[in-house]
Amino acid sequence: MNDRPGNPLPFPARPTVVVAMGADEAAASLPADLRTELDTIARLTPGVLTGDLTAPEERRALAAADVLITGWGTPALTEGVLASAPRLRAVVHAAGSVRELVTSTVWHRGIVVSSAAEANAGPVADYTYAAIVLAAKKAIPAAAAYATNPKPAFLDREGADGRTVGVIGASRIGRRVLARLRASDAKFRILLYDPCVTAREAAGLGVELSGLDELCRASSIVTVHAPLLPETHRLLDAERLALIPDGGTVVNTARGALVDTDALTRECLAGRLDAILDVTQPEPLPVGHPLRKLPNVLLTPHIAGAQGSEVRRLGAYAVEEIGRLVRGEPLRGRVREEELSRLA
């Protein structure tokens, strides 16, 4: 299970597993039944490491760890932390992105990394599709106007059929959103911008490939699913937001910094655009920020990903990955160093 030379040890038949994440996050993602299941294939260390992983008790636990299950609340796996884990062979992340978790030491040690991002993608895609339907029906401004206009004129009502939706990024989540849009009875016209996708691949996805400016000009709803990279920072800047037709909606369930917050605020204040934002830059927005008060904006506190009962999916995914490790099977959520810069 190791890509690096010089570490030929076979993976243990019954590895010792240590859980390191926030206490509440561990309770939600690894409830008793999953812990029992995990304990049939591994030695699960009792308790959860919830601190900075450098205290003596935590160092003792890490010293025995073959596998570390991480999640929300796990500190970065620095050289200092990993020095206490000489046996560590795998990090299985029961959450989404590992960009803030893994360090160069993880890769240098040849530690295998897996993420449950695939399990987290379903809830985000469901949320995004719901947001697109709400946007198509102009539900957010209609709800705000309900107190003074409880019964809008029949011809003033909006519908979803035939709307053009621009999807930025055929990422893991973006592809799921595309699939939901294709399956919709609304028969959306779907445009995709992704410089890594060929015309042939776009045809296989059942969408039209488009340039970004052209997508903005043609789409009444624009939804963002690109990774946050230096080249995608403020990808939707003032100039591109201005291309979106009057009455359009920006949906962002990816990363707040993909959209120029100040420029979007101006467009929404003018009433020209609506927005459904689960992420912002900064996050959260300051108290009193105009986007918090506008009737054509829906802000939610980063809830599109797995929440509540859904979080168990991430723990179940992690347990399944450890089973694959034990059986010597390929990991479904394997993350490699060269891929990290392209991931969310």
Automatic annotation (TrEMBL):
A GO term for molecular function: NAD binding
D-isomer specific 2-hydroxyacid dehydrogenase NAD-binding domain boundaries: 153-304
Record-level GO cellular component terms: cytosol
Protein name: Phosphoglycerate dehydrogenase-like enzyme
InterPro entries: D-isomer_2-hydroxyacid_DH, D-isomer_2_OHA_DH_cat_dom, D-isomer_DH_NAD-bd, NAD(P)-bd_dom_sf
Organism: Streptomyces netropsis
The family this protein is said to belong to: Belongs to the D-isomer specific 2-hydroxyacid dehydrogenase family.
Residues of the D-isomer specific 2-hydroxyacid dehydrogenase catalytic domain: 59-335
Keyword Transmembrane helix: no
Transmembrane keyword on record: no
Classification via PANTHER family: 2-HYDROXYACID DEHYDROGENASE YGL185C-RELATED, 2-HYDROXYACID DEHYDROGENASE-RELATED
Keywords: NAD, Oxidoreductase
Pfam family, one: 2-Hacid_dh
Protein origin, superkingdom: Bacteria
